[in-house]
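User: Could you check the structure of this?
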Amino acid sequence: MRSCVRTIVAGLACVGLWAAPASTPPAQAEISAFFSRASPAENWKTGLGAALGSTWFRLLILEAEVARQPADLGTDDGMTSFTASALVSLPTGQLRPYGGLGVGLFRQSVASNSDTGTLKAFVVGLKLRFELISLKAEYRRLTLSGTPLLPLTHRVSVGLGF
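Assistant: Sure, the predicted structure tokens are below.
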């Protein structure tokens, strides 16, 4: 009985490997940099950030992001966030829509006050892939824990990935 189960499992594994497209690697890594604008706009200047993502089977993207959004108040005021996201991408050729959820940590600083907490993100975006680079535009709806020093509810960004 065990040898029959092993034979079936081995046969299914072979069929799965044969059916998978040969040109699709199981995982691809991408690093990207972006500029962002946050809402409410009167509180924030243009921010920047970077993300490291790993795409699995052209469908699932696991991403780690760090972003800095300066406040429109002073030179050192602003918010730094670290977010881990799980995104689903539709492999529709060069233009790929994606969406998913993220969780992370943030730290806001205003004058001598600071606040540290957790965040939740709802993410949707479009990625235009070329041979060596990709352009992406993204929207994030953010929920910050507690009562943050400055409200930040939405963020849009455009970036370049390699």
